[in-house]
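Researcher: Let's continue the batch. This sequence belongs to DUF1643 domain-containing protein, and it's 223 residues. Same format as the previous ones, please.
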Amino acid sequence: MEFWSAEQLRKEFDVIASFYQIEVGSILYQCRSHAVIFRKGYNNQGFPDAIVCMANPGGARPEDSSYQLPIIQNHFDKVAYVMSKDDSTIRQLQRLMQKMNWNVISIINLSDLISDNMEDFQVKLKQVEQYSFKKHSIFDDTRLLEREALLDCNSNYTKIILAWGKDSSINQLACVAIGILSKKEKHLFGLKYSSQKWDYAHPFPRKKQRCIEWLKKMSLQLS
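Model: Same format as before. Here are the structure tokens for DUF1643 domain-containing protein:
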């Protein structure tokens, strides 16, 4: 299987995303509510080929380092989209797009909290949970309209891929998401880790050979 390099992928795809900050307990948290990967020239395609749901946005950042993230508390769907940097996970999803001959992927997360690693995410998640703050998740009831707008795209061909990993900190968020997504009239895809109902393999398991295995298994399931 051809494993496209970062340089090759950047010539083929662009990424846009909606970034914001939210204040919880006098602390500002950087967040990303939604991201879209699209093949260059296909940014006007009316619906995504797939919606991928992962744990959190990882190290996502705006391409323009001087961009000031707006501070908001509501109306997350009104945040402007800007060009976004890619990362290892984004590039792995772009490889899947190449394999499937897709043009557009929509990315949502169990939590909007941006963290470079899972340990940092666990800390931030505990901090916001101390204030019973749940709006960092698009699966919170207060974000119903925003969520429905992203999920109810007018295409029976759009696939929903679950790929949020198996860290125990996301157990509750994942179960809520599965309960909501399973009610959609779309088949759910994803590579299971175990017999537990909530854990699904992350697209980028770091080692190249394991990344290739994920691509092979995922593309086979989707075909």
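Researcher: Any comment?
Model: The chain has a mean pLDDT of 93.
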